[in-house]
Amino acid sequence: MRISILLIILGAGLATYLTRFPLMVISGNREISPKLAKLMSFIAPAVLTSLIAPAIFLREGRIDLSLSNSYIIASVITAIIAYFSKNMLVTVISGIASVAVLMYIL
Amino acid sequence: MKKSNVKSELLKGFIDTIPLGLSASIYGVVYGVLAGKAGLSIWETIAMSCIVFAGASQMTAVQMIALGSSGVSIIITVFIINLRHFLLGASIAPYLRHESTGMKLLNAFLMTDESYAVTYSHYQSDPPTGKYFLGSGINIYILWGLSGAVGYFFGNIISSQLSYIFDFAFVAAFLGMLVPMIKGLPVLVAVLTSAIVSLLGSRFIPGKWYIIVAAIVASLAGYIASELKGSSKSEVNNRGGVQCED
Question: What is the ipTM of this complex?
Answer without folding.
Answer: 0.89
